[in-house]
């Protein structure tokens, strides 16, 4: 049982594994390669995106500065006169109101004299005419038109920038603006990279100018605060790529890109938490992974179902053959796969049916052989029906035989000896009966009843019966010699008669016998009973049937038990082997010898 | 009558004043039912407590409190949800501030907010050296000795400073601009203010630069306000310049009424003054400063250290001009002033 299970599961495993791998390997290959390419694409997109964000942020910062310089340009268009310029003062004050980031404005005329100073905090000055030619902002603007000073930290906290601008000719002078860079906060905090990404602004030396968390900016030139920002900027500078990954001040992993802000030589850096930046990548990877898992699970299910479907008929075949092998020929294997397996199952079913028929025949033959000669039994079987065994009236020869003195012998002898004698007796007779195709209808103890010409008709039944009787007598007489040597006094007599009788099967269920019913049977029995040891008695019908062929001796009329009138009885001679020292029935006349009349009947 | 009770009232405002300024009656009944404060203390520790120290009463603070709560909300805190606030109001009695601050400190709040001027900040500083204090003032916290530096406040304090104190000289300048023919101006100063001396020094320097003379009028109590304005008229001063001081700022309505009545051109630090009918104001935007105070308080609640939060200076200094008041006074506002004005009330 275990072995069978193992074989079964082995086949299932093989099918399952093959089917599963056939689906999963291409699926996994496809999924992994797709994930890889998608990762590369997404990564490239992300890099581009961050670089674009950085440039866009730089443009915004530039916009902030341009908003200031454009306004400043309006103040350096007209030439100064020696008179106080009231209109320019109004313009300057309005500009201050419009640009909140400007803390103070200084207007210098073409000769480098301060003509106007307006401030939000300090007192305004008009026409102070102080010489500002040495002022680096004024000098810078005169040489480069637009001049950005270095970032300063007011009271070590607020970042300030000096912007100076000159007009297109020297006489319009220079305007110098102090800009509070804290107001870039509005710009920088509005820059959103993705959902949580931010931007920060560094000046040339790497000091923080703007950050969404204003408190970081207000710490001024604090090395500990600035270090991570500088590190990130330097990392981008060294990497040579658009985007780098690193960590921010809090040690959080980020992706960052930088873009220069032309003019004041600043750098804007945009950063996005890696978790968010790579969010779509991770999502895609998770999705791919999930689909792979689902696909693998589905493939497993599919492989299981298919493997089951493939092995199930095989298993049923296996079971079916086992059952058929165990003798259940009525078992049928039901496989409806419509393929070779079904054909195989059908073959098995046909085989089983044939085996059943064969077994049935075997059983029938075995049964027939009990009372029919083997060849008769075969014949009956070959003909396929046992209608020959059905009751009918026919001409038969009935042969009875039994031992003389057997009752006395069996009373005295040991059971072993009795069985030995019977065994030798039946062995000898059995061969003769079989050879002569006689039908053994019954035997009991030492007596036998044989039929000839029924159920299978034979040629010249009487002659066969006479010859058979002679054979039997000869064989048994040989045995009797041996038995005498062992001290047993046993004889053997045969009676035969021919005539019509009703033949057929009698009995119930599996206990059927074939027998003949009629007076001829009685006559044969009576003749046997009256036959002495070594005597074969036949009735007139037998005698007449073989009269030309065998030497039948008429024994005259004898009174037969059960018959009112005396009947003619004939003796059948048989040749006694000459070796026999003390013939019990060597010649027909030996039959006249007195014998104990204890035979059947 | 705007004169308030002088009783040293300790008022415990219980959270929600979203519906508007609390009425005084409510505070008195609130005071009677002292047990009302208990549920706040009984709150589970999970809800942080803010101690709020105000030098005045809640009514003039309403706009400031609104800005403060907005700032707090920006950092994720709301009184109705996840933070409790205990208020202590000095009702204009600034000398009570130290006791109120000590009372607040005894409650062991997560953070003390000392808003509305240097006195509150100084009182809070002397009350505790451990509890974080977020201040809001008009003066220079370094000059006042509240913090060591703006960028690295050090200790347990940080906060927001509007530029109101620093720009008091600009008020004189604007007054002079408005009335170029006047050479004498009166200056109102609160002698109890810790910034009084520095402001006066600044103002005198400015007066020298502008070529005008100053009459300094001291007052530290609103019952003297009326006398202040009548004195200006008597002095033949062209106008009255108020120094930056919360005591004045929170009494803008009263000052505006008196300025109108006595026909005195005046300028104060708070926009409340021209809004109430006064002539001009120049000072830091208090909604910005109180809002940032709220943000800092929230960041402290979120676990940040005061030393990491630099003192913020309010960026916006605003000039308000009330043309109606100018017209009533018979003053023509010059275009330079109008160009500078952030808001012109017509």
CA-based shape of chain A: rod-shaped
Mean pLDDT of chain B: 84
Q: Give start-end ranges of low-pLDDT stretches of chain B.
A: 1-44
* Number of discrete domains of chain B: 2
Q: Helicity of chain A, in percent? A: 40-55%
In angstroms, what separates the terminal alpha carbons of chain A?
61 Å
Number of strands of chain A: 20
Structurally, how many domains make up the residues of chain A? 3
Top-tier CATH class of the largest domain in chain A: Alpha Beta
Question: What sort of overall outline of chain B do the alpha carbons produce when their principal axes are compared?
Answer: elongated
Question: Helicity range of the residues of chain B?
Answer: 25-40%
The oligomeric state of the chains shown is heterodimer
Q: Given the helix and strand composition of chain A, which structural class is it? A: alpha+beta
Main pleated sheet of chain B: 7 strands, mixed
* Radius of gyration of chain A using CA atoms only: 67 Å
Fourth-level CATH superfamily of the largest domain in chain A: Nucleotide cyclase, GGDEF domain
From the alpha carbons, calculate the radius of gyration of chain B and give it in angstroms.
Answer: 20 Å
Just name the CATH architecture of the largest domain in chain B.
Answer: 3-Layer(aba) Sandwich
Strand line-up across the major sheet of chain B: 7-6-8-9-10-12-13
Q: CATH topology of the largest domain in chain A, anyone?
A: Alpha-Beta Plaits
Write the H/E string of chain B, N to C.
HHEHEHEHEEHEHEHEHHEHEHEEHHE
């Amino acid at each position: 049982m275990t072995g069978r299970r193992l074989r079964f599961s082995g086949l299932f495993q093989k099918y399952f594994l093959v089917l599963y791998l056939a689906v999963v390997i291409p699926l996994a290959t496809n999924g992994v390669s797709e994930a890889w390419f998608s990762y590369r694409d997404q990564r490239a997109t992300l890099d581009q995106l961050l670089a674009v964000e950085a440039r866009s942020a730089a443009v915004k910062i530039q916009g902030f500065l341009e908003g200031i310089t454009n306004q400043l340009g309006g103040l350096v268009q007209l030439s100064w006169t020696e008179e106080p310029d009231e209109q320019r003062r109004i313009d300057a004050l309005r500009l201050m109101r419009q640009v909140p980031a400007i803390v103070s404005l200084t207007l210098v005329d073409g000769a480098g004299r301060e003509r106007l100073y307006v401030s939000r905090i300090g007192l305004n000055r008009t026409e102070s005419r102080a010489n500002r030619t040495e002022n680096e902002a004024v000098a810078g603007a005169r040489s480069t038109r637009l001049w950005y000073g270095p970032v300063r930290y007011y009271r070590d906290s607020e970042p300030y920038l000096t912007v100076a601008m000159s007009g297109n000719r020297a006489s319009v002078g220079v305007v110098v603006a102090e800009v509070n860079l804290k107001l870039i906060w509005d710009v920088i905090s509005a820059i959103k990279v993705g959902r949580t990404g931010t931007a920060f602004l560094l000046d040339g030396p790497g000091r923080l100018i703007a950050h969404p968390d204003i408190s970081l900016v207000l710490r001024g030139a604090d090395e500990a605060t600035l270090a991570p920002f500088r590190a990130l900027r330097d990392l981008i500078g060294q990497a040579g790529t658009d985007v780098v990954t690193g960590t921010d001040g809090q040690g959080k992993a980020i992706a960052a890109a930088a873009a220069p802000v032309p003019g004041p030589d600043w750098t804007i850096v945009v950063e996005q938490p890696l978790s968010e930046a790579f969010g779509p990548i991770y999502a895609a990877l998770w999705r791919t992974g999930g689909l792979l898992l689902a696909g693998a699970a589905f493939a497993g299910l599919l492989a299981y179902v298919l493997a089951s479907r493939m092995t199930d008929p095989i298993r049923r075949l296996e079971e079916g053959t086992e059952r058929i092998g165990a003798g259940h020929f009525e078992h049928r294997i039901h496989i409806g796969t419509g393929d070779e397996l079904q054909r195989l199952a059908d073959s098995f079913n046909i085989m089983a049916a044939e085996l059943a028929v064969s077994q049935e025949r075997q059983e029938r033959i075995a049964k027939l052989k009990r009372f029919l000669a083997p060849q008769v039994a075969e014949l009956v079987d070959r003909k396929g029906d046992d209608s020959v065994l059905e009751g009918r009236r026919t001409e038969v020869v009935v042969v009875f035989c039994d031992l003389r003195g057997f009752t006395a012998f069996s009373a005295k002898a040991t059971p072993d000896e009795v069985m030995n004698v019977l065994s030798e007796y039946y062995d000898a007779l059995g061969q003769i009966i079989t050879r002569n195709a006689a039908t053994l209808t019954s035997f009991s103890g030492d007596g036998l009843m044989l039929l000839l010409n029924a159920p299978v008709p034979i040629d010249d039944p009487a002659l066969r019966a006479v010859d058979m009787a002679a054979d039997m007598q000869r064989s048994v007489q040989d045995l009797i010699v041996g038995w005498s040597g062992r001290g047993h006094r046993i004889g053997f007599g045969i009676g035969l008669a021919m005539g019509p009788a009703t033949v057929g099967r009698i009995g119930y269920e599996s206990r059927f016998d074939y027998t003949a019913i009629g007076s001829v049977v009685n006559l044969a029995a009576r003749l046997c009973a009256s036959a002495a040891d070594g005597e074969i008695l036949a009735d007139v019908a037998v005698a007449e049937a073989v009269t030309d062929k065998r030497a039948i001796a008429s024994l005259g009329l004898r009174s037969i038990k059960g018959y009112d009138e005396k009947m003619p009885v004939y003796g059948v001679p048989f040749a006694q082997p000459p070796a026999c020292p003390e013939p019990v029935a060597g010649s027909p006349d030996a039959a006249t010898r007195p014998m104990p009349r204890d035979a059947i009947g | 009558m705007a004169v308030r009770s002088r009783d040293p009232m300790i008022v415990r405002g219980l959270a929600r004043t979203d519906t508007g300024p609390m009425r005084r009656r409510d505070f008195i009944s609130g005071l009677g039912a002292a047990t009302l404060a208990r549920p706040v203390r009984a709150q589970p520790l999970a809800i942080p407590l803010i101690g709020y120290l105000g030098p005045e009463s809640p009514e003039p603070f309403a706009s400031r409190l609104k800005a403060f709560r907005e700032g707090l909300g920006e950092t994720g805190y709301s009184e109705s949800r996840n933070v409790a606030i205990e208020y202590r109001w000095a009702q204009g009695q600034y000398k009570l501030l130290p006791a109120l601050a000590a009372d607040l400190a005894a409650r062991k709040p997560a953070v003390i907010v000392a808003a509305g001027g240097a006195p509150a900040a100084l009182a809070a500083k002397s009350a505790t050296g451990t509890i974080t204090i977020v201040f809001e003032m008009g003066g220079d916290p370094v000059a006042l000795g509240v913090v060591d530096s703006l960028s690295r406040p050090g200790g347990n304090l940080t906060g927001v400073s509007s530029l109101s104190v620093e720009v008091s000289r600009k008020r004189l300048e604007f007054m002079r601009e408005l009335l170029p023919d006047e050479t004498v101006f009166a200056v109102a100063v609160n002698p109890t203010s810790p910034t009084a001396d520095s402001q006066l020094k600044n103002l005198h320097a400015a007066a020298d630069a502008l070529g005008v003379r100053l009459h300094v009028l001291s007052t530290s109590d609103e019952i003297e306000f009326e006398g202040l304005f009548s004195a200006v008229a008597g002095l033949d001063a062209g106008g009255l310049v108020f120094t930056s001081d919360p005591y004045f700022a929170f009494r803008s309505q009263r000052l505006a009424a008196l300025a109108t009545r006595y026909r005195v051109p005046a300028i104060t630090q708070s926009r409340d003054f021209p809004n109430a009918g006064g002539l001009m104001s120049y000072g830091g935007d208090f909604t910005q400063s109180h809002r940032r105070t709220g943000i800092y308080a929230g960041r402290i609640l979120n676990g940040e250290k005061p030393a990491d939060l630099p003192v913020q200076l309010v960026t916006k200094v605003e000039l308000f001009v009330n043309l109606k008041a100018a017209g009533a006074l018979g003053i023509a506002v010059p275009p330079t002033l109008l160009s500078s004005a952030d808001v012109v009330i017509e």
